[in-house]
From TrEMBL:
Tagged with keyword Transferase: yes
EC code: 2.2.1.7
Lineage start: Eukaryota, Viridiplantae, Streptophyta, Embryophyta, Tracheophyta
Entry keywords, A to Z: Isoprene biosynthesis, Magnesium, Metal-binding, Thiamine biosynthesis, Thiamine pyrophosphate, Transferase
Annotated metabolic or biological route of this protein: Metabolic intermediate biosynthesis; 1-deoxy-D-xylulose 5-phosphate biosynthesis; 1-deoxy-D-xylulose 5-phosphate from D-glyceraldehyde 3-phosphate and pyruvate: step 1/1
Organism: Arachis hypogaea (Peanut)
Protein name (database record): 1-deoxy-D-xylulose-5-phosphate synthase
Similarity field: Belongs to the transketolase family. DXPS subfamily.
Annotated coiled-coil segments of the chain: none
Amino acid sequence: MDMATAPATHCSFGIPIHSHAASSSSFPNRLDCSSSSHFPLHLELSTISIFPRSSSPLKGSMDRVCARPDIDDFYWEKISTPILDTIENPICLKNLSLKELKQLAGELRLELSSIMSSTQIPLSASIAAVELTIAMHHVFHAPVDKILWDVGEQTYAHKILTGRRSLMYTMRQKNGISGFTSRFESEYDAFGAGHGCNSISAGLGMAVARDMKGRRERIVTVISNLTTMAGQVYEAMSNAGYLDSNLVVVLNDSRHSLLPKVDEGPKTSINALSSTLSKLQSSKPFRRFREAAKGVTKRIGRGMHEWAAKVDEYARGLIGPLGSTLFDELGLYYIGPVDGNNIEDLVCVLQEVASLDSMGPVLVHVITDDNQGVENNKRSDITDGQEDDSIKSNFLHYDVRQRTYGDCFVETLVSEAEKDKDIVVVNTGTMMEPSLELFREKFPDRFFDVGMAEQHAVTFASGLSCGGLKPFCVIPSSFLQRAYDQVVHDVDQQKIPVRFVITSAGLVGSDGPLQCGAFDITFMSCLPNMIVMAPSDEIELVHMVATAIHVNDRPICFRYPRGALVGRDQTICDGVPIEIGEGRVLVEGKDVALLGYGSMVQNCLKAHTLLAKLGIEVTVADARFCKPLDIKLLRQLCKHHSFLITVEEGSIGGFGSHVAQFIALDGLLDGSIKWRPIVLPDSYIEHASPNEQLQQAGLTGHHIAAATLSLLGRTREALQFMCS
C-alpha cells in the first residue's frame, strides 16, 4: 500500500494516526498500522500485553493494562494529566504536536514525582530523562524499532509510556513489575538492563542480525555518563565503528561524576549556537555533502583521503565539546551536545538521525538536568507540608535505628586504619555505600572510588598491595562477577594479598535477581589460594576485618548481606584475628547438627529454638570458613550425630559442596552420617521483600526446622512448619 494514500488509523482512545510518505526514511514519521509492508510484525492496539500470558509474574493481572491507574488499588493523588491519561502505548504519541509533547512531559514528570513520594523509590534519573524518553518514542517505532537502556533507573518514564502506568506502584514488590527493563515483562523492553554498559554491545548484535536477515528496523541504545566508566562501552563502540552497522547511541549525560574535582571544572554548555550546530551535524544535506566529499578524496588518492579526514576531525573538534573527537576516533559520528530537556531540539535531531538508510553508528550527546522541573513538582504542591515533614521525620527515625553490616564494617575499618596507615579502600559499583562516606571523610587520600570499573578496581588493588599497602576492595557480589578474570589471574594466581569485601551477598529484596549475590561463595571458594569466610553477626564481622588485615601472604575475602544487623545489644570491641579455618559450636545437641555459613547461622539458631519446643535438641555450629574448612569440627560433628545439614545463602556448588567433598574423601559418608544441603534454589528469585524471598528460597528458620523433622521421620510436624 502506498504510504501517501494509506487511510488513517486510530489509537484505542480515538486519536487518528495519519501516515505520509517519507522521502528517505526506512520508517514513516507517523505510524500506519494498516500497512504491513513497513513492519515485520503487527501491533494490536486494543490488546497490548505487558506480560506473556504463559509466564506472567503478575498473577491474575489483566492482559490489557489501562493508561490510568486503578484508583481502587492505589492511593492516587488527584493530579490532572489529560494527555497522559490517553497514552496506552507509544503509538499514541505519534500524532501529538510539539506543544502537546511538552505538556505530556510536564504531566509525566508530575506522575513520576507522585510515584516517588508514595513509594520512596528514587526516580530522579527518570525525571531528568522524561523529554528524551518521549522524543525517542515519538520518533522511533517501538517495539519494531529496538530501544535498549543501560540502567534501570532511567526507564520509569519508558515503563509508563509502554502500558505499565497502572502497575508502577507495584514496582520492586512481590508479583509486581521490575525496577529494571525485562524481556519477560514487556515487548517494549528489547533487552534487560543489567549492571550498566551492556546496551551498546547487545544493540550492535541486534543491528548485525538485522542486516544479515535483511530487515530495516532501527536500533537505539541509551547509555549514561556513569556507565561510560566501564570498559565494555568502549569495546562495543570500537567494534561498532569497525562493523559500520546502522546504530544510534544516545549518551544521556546528567553531568554527574564520582570525582568532586572533575565537577568543579568546566561543564559542557548548551546554548543557541550548540543547538544549531547539533542540528546541522545531524541534517541530511550536511551528512550527504560529507559522504560525497569522502568519495571524491578517495578517488583523488595520494593521501588526500587521510588528509581530508584529519581536517574533518579537526573542524568537528572545534565545534564540538571537549572530548567529542574520542567518539569519532572510535568510529561513531558524533552529534551534540543537544539539550536533553528541549523536546523540539530532541525531536529534530532524532528525526534527522532516523531519516537516512546508510549512516553507520551515530552517537547523540544529550545533556539532561536532574533538577529539571523540581520547583513545580515538590510534594508540597500535592499534599500539605505537615504531612511531608511527618513522613520525613519517620524515615529519619527509621534510618537512625537501623544499623547495617556496612556500618559495622566501616566503623571497624576506620578504627583499624587509625592504627595502620597502610590500610586503603578501593570502592567499585554503581554507587558508593553511604557508610563508606565515614572512611572517605576520615582518610580522603586513602579512599579510591573507581565507579563501574570492576576489572580495573581488582587489578588496581593488586598493584596497591604489591606496593606495600593493605587494600580492601569493596565490591557488591553481583558486580564481582564482572571482574572474575582479574580475581583469578591478577590476584589469586600470584598470591597477592588483596582483601575482598563482598557486599550485598545473598538475596537483596526489591532489586531481585539482577543484584542478587548468589554465586560468590561458589566462584571464590574454587580458587586455590583464596581464603573464603563469612560472619554470622556483627561481632564476627569485626573479628574478620582484623583477620583480613593480618593475612599478608595470600588473598582473602568475606561477604555480608544487605539489611540490618542481628541487633544484639553488645558493645563491639576491637577485633581479634581468627585462626584461619577455625569454626565454632554455638549450641550442643544430639542426633542432628546444623552447620551454618554466614548469615544463615542466625536462621539455624531460630530453627533450634523451634525444635527445642518439640523436645528436639540439635547442635548448631558456625563454620566461619568455606575455605579452608575446619576439618576437626567436621569430623567431630559427623562422629557424634546421625545427620549433618549444611545451610548457606548461596548457589549450588558452594559451602555445602566443599563439605560434601571433604566428608566423602575422608570416608565419613561411609559410616552412619547422612548429609543434606540447604542452598538457594537453582533458579532466579524475583523481587520481593527479603523475608518473602527467604520464604520462597526455603531458607527460613521454619524451613530448616522442617528439614530436620523430615530427617527424623516426623513428616506431619515438618509439613506444619512448612505451612506456618
